[in-house]
Amino acid sequence: xxxxxxxxxxxxxxxxxxxxxxxxxxxxxxxxxxxxxxxxxxxxxxxxxxxxxxxxxxxxxxxxxxxxxxxxxxxxxxxxxxxxxxxxxxxxxxxxxxxxxxxxxxxxxxxxxxxxxxxxxxxxxxxxxxxxxxxxxxxxxxxxxxxxxxxxxxxxxxxxxxxxxxxxxxxxxxxxxxxxxxxxxxxxxxxxxxxxxxxxxxxxxxxx
Length: 208
Description:
Radius of gyration: 28 Å
Number of helices: 5
Low-confidence stretches: none
Protein backbone atom coordinates (compact mmCIF):
# COMPACT_ATOMS: atom_id res chain seq x y z
CA UNK A 1 0.00 0.00 0.00
CA UNK A 2 2.90 2.38 0.76
CA UNK A 3 4.35 1.83 -2.73
CA UNK A 4 1.00 2.71 -4.33
CA UNK A 5 0.73 5.86 -2.20
CA UNK A 6 4.25 6.96 -3.16
CA UNK A 7 3.51 6.25 -6.84
CA UNK A 8 0.25 8.24 -6.90
CA UNK A 9 1.81 11.06 -4.86
CA UNK A 10 4.66 11.42 -7.37
CA UNK A 11 2.16 11.48 -10.26
CA UNK A 12 0.16 14.19 -8.47
CA UNK A 13 3.28 16.34 -8.01
CA UNK A 14 4.10 16.08 -11.72
CA UNK A 15 0.54 16.80 -12.88
CA UNK A 16 -0.02 19.73 -10.50
CA UNK A 17 3.28 21.33 -11.52
CA UNK A 18 2.36 20.96 -15.18
CA UNK A 19 -1.09 22.51 -14.73
CA UNK A 20 0.28 25.34 -12.57
CA UNK A 21 2.72 26.20 -15.39
CA UNK A 22 -0.25 26.22 -17.80
CA UNK A 23 -2.09 28.70 -15.57
CA UNK A 24 0.88 31.05 -15.61
CA UNK A 25 1.47 30.61 -19.34
CA UNK A 26 -2.17 31.43 -20.14
CA UNK A 27 -2.09 34.27 -17.58
CA UNK A 28 -5.14 32.91 -15.77
CA UNK A 29 -3.63 33.56 -12.33
CA UNK A 30 -0.56 35.54 -11.19
CA UNK A 31 2.56 33.74 -9.98
CA UNK A 32 2.56 32.65 -6.34
CA UNK A 33 5.49 32.55 -3.94
CA UNK A 34 6.77 28.98 -3.58
CA UNK A 35 8.95 27.37 -0.93
CA UNK A 36 10.01 24.52 -3.20
CA UNK A 37 10.09 24.71 -7.00
CA UNK A 38 9.91 20.91 -7.25
CA UNK A 39 6.58 20.47 -5.49
CA UNK A 40 3.48 22.51 -4.62
CA UNK A 41 2.69 22.26 -0.90
CA UNK A 42 -0.91 21.95 0.40
CA UNK A 43 -0.73 25.61 1.43
CA UNK A 44 0.34 26.63 -2.09
CA UNK A 45 -2.32 24.43 -3.71
CA UNK A 46 -4.89 26.13 -1.47
CA UNK A 47 -3.61 29.52 -2.64
CA UNK A 48 -4.01 28.46 -6.29
CA UNK A 49 -7.59 27.34 -5.52
CA UNK A 50 -8.35 30.73 -3.95
CA UNK A 51 -6.97 32.63 -6.95
CA UNK A 52 -8.97 30.48 -9.38
CA UNK A 53 -12.07 31.01 -7.27
CA UNK A 54 -11.52 34.76 -7.49
CA UNK A 55 -11.03 34.45 -11.25
CA UNK A 56 -14.38 32.65 -11.66
CA UNK A 57 -16.12 35.33 -9.56
CA UNK A 58 -14.50 37.98 -11.75
CA UNK A 59 -15.93 36.33 -14.87
CA UNK A 60 -19.38 36.08 -13.20
CA UNK A 61 -19.33 39.82 -12.59
CA UNK A 62 -18.20 40.64 -16.15
CA UNK A 63 -20.88 38.39 -17.69
CA UNK A 64 -23.54 40.04 -15.55
CA UNK A 65 -22.41 43.53 -16.57
CA UNK A 66 -21.93 42.79 -20.29
CA UNK A 67 -24.65 43.68 -22.77
CA UNK A 68 -22.92 42.24 -25.85
CA UNK A 69 -24.00 38.72 -26.85
CA UNK A 70 -20.66 37.74 -28.40
CA UNK A 71 -18.71 39.17 -25.47
CA UNK A 72 -20.86 37.24 -22.99
CA UNK A 73 -20.32 34.09 -25.03
CA UNK A 74 -16.53 34.60 -24.96
CA UNK A 75 -16.54 35.32 -21.22
CA UNK A 76 -18.56 32.14 -20.52
CA UNK A 77 -16.02 30.12 -22.51
CA UNK A 78 -13.13 31.56 -20.50
CA UNK A 79 -15.02 31.06 -17.23
CA UNK A 80 -15.63 27.41 -18.12
CA UNK A 81 -11.88 26.86 -18.56
CA UNK A 82 -11.14 28.49 -15.20
CA UNK A 83 -13.82 26.37 -13.53
CA UNK A 84 -12.22 23.21 -14.93
CA UNK A 85 -8.84 24.24 -13.50
CA UNK A 86 -10.53 25.09 -10.18
CA UNK A 87 -12.13 21.65 -9.95
CA UNK A 88 -8.81 19.96 -10.78
CA UNK A 89 -6.82 21.89 -8.17
CA UNK A 90 -9.44 21.23 -5.49
CA UNK A 91 -8.95 17.54 -6.25
CA UNK A 92 -5.13 17.96 -6.11
CA UNK A 93 -5.40 19.61 -2.70
CA UNK A 94 -7.66 16.90 -1.22
CA UNK A 95 -5.42 14.10 -2.54
CA UNK A 96 -2.23 15.84 -1.44
CA UNK A 97 -3.54 16.11 2.13
CA UNK A 98 -4.65 12.47 2.08
CA UNK A 99 -1.28 11.18 0.84
CA UNK A 100 0.61 13.22 3.45
CA UNK A 101 -1.68 11.87 6.18
CA UNK A 102 -1.18 8.30 4.92
CA UNK A 103 2.62 8.68 4.95
CA UNK A 104 2.60 10.04 8.51
CA UNK A 105 0.56 7.01 9.67
CA UNK A 106 2.81 4.55 7.81
CA UNK A 107 5.92 5.69 9.68
CA UNK A 108 8.40 2.91 8.84
CA UNK A 109 5.64 0.45 7.89
CA UNK A 110 4.36 -0.50 4.43
CA UNK A 111 0.69 -0.77 5.40
CA UNK A 112 -1.90 0.02 8.08
CA UNK A 113 -5.50 -0.84 8.79
CA UNK A 114 -8.04 1.88 7.99
CA UNK A 115 -10.20 0.81 10.95
CA UNK A 116 -7.21 0.49 13.32
CA UNK A 117 -4.27 2.61 12.05
CA UNK A 118 -1.90 1.17 14.68
CA UNK A 119 -2.35 -2.32 13.22
CA UNK A 120 -0.26 -3.56 10.28
CA UNK A 121 -1.22 -6.16 7.65
CA UNK A 122 0.69 -9.36 8.45
CA UNK A 123 0.93 -12.84 7.00
CA UNK A 124 -0.90 -15.07 9.52
CA UNK A 125 -0.78 -18.85 9.83
CA UNK A 126 -2.72 -20.75 7.17
CA UNK A 127 -6.34 -21.61 7.94
CA UNK A 128 -7.68 -25.18 8.00
CA UNK A 129 -7.92 -25.14 4.18
CA UNK A 130 -4.22 -24.17 3.93
CA UNK A 131 -5.11 -20.70 2.67
CA UNK A 132 -2.63 -17.97 3.55
CA UNK A 133 -4.12 -15.26 5.74
CA UNK A 134 -3.18 -11.60 5.31
CA UNK A 135 -4.83 -9.67 8.11
CA UNK A 136 -4.34 -6.53 10.17
CA UNK A 137 -2.69 -7.43 13.45
CA UNK A 138 0.06 -6.88 16.00
CA UNK A 139 3.34 -8.61 16.77
CA UNK A 140 3.41 -9.63 20.45
CA UNK A 141 6.84 -10.32 21.95
CA UNK A 142 7.36 -12.23 25.21
CA UNK A 143 10.63 -12.84 27.08
CA UNK A 144 10.65 -15.96 29.25
CA UNK A 145 12.92 -17.82 31.67
CA UNK A 146 12.05 -21.31 32.91
CA UNK A 147 8.56 -20.94 31.34
CA UNK A 148 7.87 -17.79 33.36
CA UNK A 149 6.99 -14.59 31.48
CA UNK A 150 9.40 -11.85 32.52
CA UNK A 151 8.65 -9.11 29.95
CA UNK A 152 6.37 -8.39 27.02
CA UNK A 153 5.56 -5.72 24.45
CA UNK A 154 3.30 -5.19 21.42
CA UNK A 155 4.67 -4.00 18.06
CA UNK A 156 3.19 -2.96 14.72
CA UNK A 157 6.24 -4.41 12.95
CA UNK A 158 5.29 -7.61 11.07
CA UNK A 159 8.76 -9.25 11.16
CA UNK A 160 10.57 -10.64 14.21
CA UNK A 161 13.96 -9.83 12.67
CA UNK A 162 13.39 -6.09 13.05
CA UNK A 163 11.56 -6.41 16.38
CA UNK A 164 14.32 -7.94 18.53
CA UNK A 165 16.37 -4.74 19.02
CA UNK A 166 13.45 -2.48 20.10
CA UNK A 167 12.22 -5.29 22.39
CA UNK A 168 15.63 -5.59 24.06
CA UNK A 169 15.65 -1.81 24.48
CA UNK A 170 12.23 -2.03 26.18
CA UNK A 171 13.42 -4.82 28.51
CA UNK A 172 16.50 -2.86 29.61
CA UNK A 173 14.54 0.36 30.06
CA UNK A 174 11.48 -0.96 31.91
CA UNK A 175 12.08 -4.51 33.18
CA UNK A 176 15.54 -5.82 34.07
CA UNK A 177 19.19 -6.08 33.13
CA UNK A 178 19.69 -8.48 30.21
CA UNK A 179 21.10 -11.94 31.04
CA UNK A 180 24.37 -13.29 29.67
CA UNK A 181 22.68 -15.36 26.95
CA UNK A 182 19.94 -14.10 24.59
CA UNK A 183 18.15 -17.13 23.14
CA UNK A 184 15.76 -16.85 20.17
CA UNK A 185 14.71 -18.89 17.14
CA UNK A 186 15.80 -18.40 13.53
CA UNK A 187 13.11 -15.77 12.93
CA UNK A 188 15.35 -13.33 14.82
CA UNK A 189 18.60 -14.29 13.08
CA UNK A 190 20.39 -11.44 11.33
CA UNK A 191 23.87 -9.92 11.35
CA UNK A 192 22.47 -6.67 12.75
CA UNK A 193 20.80 -8.49 15.65
CA UNK A 194 23.95 -10.50 16.47
CA UNK A 195 26.02 -7.33 16.50
CA UNK A 196 23.49 -5.50 18.69
CA UNK A 197 23.35 -8.29 21.28
CA UNK A 198 27.17 -8.46 21.47
CA UNK A 199 27.36 -4.67 21.85
CA UNK A 200 25.18 -5.11 24.95
CA UNK A 201 27.93 -7.47 26.26
CA UNK A 202 25.63 -10.49 25.90
CA UNK A 203 26.00 -13.70 23.85
CA UNK A 204 23.44 -14.34 21.08
CA UNK A 205 22.24 -17.94 20.83
CA UNK A 206 20.15 -17.37 17.72
CA UNK A 207 20.05 -19.69 14.70
CA UNK A 208 20.63 -17.93 11.38
